[in-house]
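User: two proteins, same treatment. go.

Assistant:
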Amino acid sequence: MQGRSINTTQARGDLANMENNQSYFYQFLEPISEDLSQMANGLEKSIYSSPQTMLMHTRTFVEAILHRVMIAEQLSGEENFTLKDRIDLLEKKGLLEKEIIDALHQVRMNGNSAAHESRNFRYSEALLSWEAIYVIIGWYVKKYCPQDVKVPAYQDPEPTKGDHTEVSELEARLQNMEALIRSNIQQQKGLTEEFETAAGSGTPGDALPGLALVRTIVYKDRSLEVPHFLRDAFLLPQRFEESERFLATLAAKQEVRIMSELPNNLEGLHDDVKGFSEESDEILFKELKHFIKEETARREVELTLPGKLALFYKTDYVIVTDQLANIPLIEEEFDSIPSLFQQLHEDQIERVGQLPKDLATLTKYDNVGFETVEELFEQLKGK
């Protein structure tokens, strides 16, 4: 994994900035882990600033807690276990009660939604995950922490007055905290290798939010790295031209729908469904690598052009101006695509500004292939 070693001085500086000399609900965790307590503080601050940011990072926070539990229980596991992997393992070992399992899955599923859905997330969704954290922390403290640590009664967080932290800065800080937590876990396990992360100094100038590498997927002697923002990305079959049927079949069997449901090793993935071979695994690995490259390029575009709407097709994109957004999707404006427009209108997509960000998803419509989508994209660029 490529990247810079984490700057712990800068990371702890960010933690101090998040605290800002004010009391916060999870301050009682400080004797157990200052890193966890301060990350919980950051999550609390993000509930009303950016519910989506809070939901994504809550999942990683809970994953770090389960990592500590696995260390305490002396359970072996891969370093790149997903949250679902950890929940399943602890449940199998009989270490989780139903209330805890439900809370963990609520955090996991809310985090998955926040990671791959393009919509405005509600405060109420973030508050539900905040309640689930309380249940999980209560269990963790009672079972794995000193008896003198007391968990206070639950209380809803209040909006922080005068806190105008930019969402991008908040996300960068939370990523830096996550990197510090992971680094400390590595030290707990007695690992000597340096923990590397693109979140290095925690500043947007050094690493764009979301691009830290968090997982490795292998196939035979090859490997690929998954960045943070794609850890739970929805694997839309239409994005994988040669593997479309394979992915659709896996999704139908509820085997693989999002990135985190992929196994760490793709060898033998075809064994989970009928009608596919080892070649299917290899082709999916190849297309997955291309998918990550495309999505990373798109992420960089979005982060360097904040507030701008972009429509993407493969590695290219077009910025949607107000004028372009209001152009109707009709034959008088675009040549030779009447069938697509008719189907879009049935879905109440009538103007350019209503098109999906990833134009490749348009291939889900009847008799619409990549050639049709590319033709539309080229005409959009010419407007």
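Protein 2:
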Amino acid sequence: HLHSAHRHSFYHLVFFTEGFGYQQIDFKKFEVKEGLIYFMIPGQVHSWEFEKEPEGYIINFSSDYLSNFLLKPDYLNGFSFFSGQPDQQVLQLSDPVQQVIVNGFEDILKEAKSETPINDDLVKTLLLRIFIEIARDQNASLTNNKHSYNHTLLQNFKNLIETNFATLRLPKQYANLLYITPNHLNALCKDVLGVSAGTLIRDRVILEAKRLLINLDLLVAEIADKLNFEDQSYFVKFFKKHEGVTPEKFRKLNTSNHGSRKND
């Protein structure tokens, strides 16, 4: 019942109808129980340990599966459970919505088992309905603050971090790309998120280091190079300062010794 940490290269969601145990998403621990659904986006790391055999539904789909279907390639970003923030990705659903999404999952399965050729557009539409019903249940409106200037600016900053965290480490570099001052960017982050712009950048670098460390095929020196640290020694000091353990110690705590753990 123990599944070692592994990294997903696709969107992934699981709805549990039975079972109990624990799971980790990007190294944050959550309970597994009936009526719970969790979401993951490409690149995140996941592990779980079940104390009671689970039952439920799993759906995996590629990054372009829905973007090719919709006119808005960033449509999924409107759902908080696709934010990449683990605390927003694990949800306990109300009983009425559980029944609605079970019906949705069953309709998808029915289409897959049909003797007629599968209608992929129907499957995509059913999947989108599941997302919208869950968002409504969580009061996570697609349009809530979606078009405010500060929300847009903050989302653009996060997108830039996601693309450039390995090469751009200073808030002023991102402020230049956003055409605002570093003070404005920092004030925005503190007002909305309660942390500095520098902390967001640093945390993303550390998260990527953790994700890479579970791949036993990579040497610590190679990870330091991938993240553009001057040398392994500087990377080790940086990691230990913020995590309290060395990269090697973190790796031992979060992997088994059964060889490499490649992406799914």
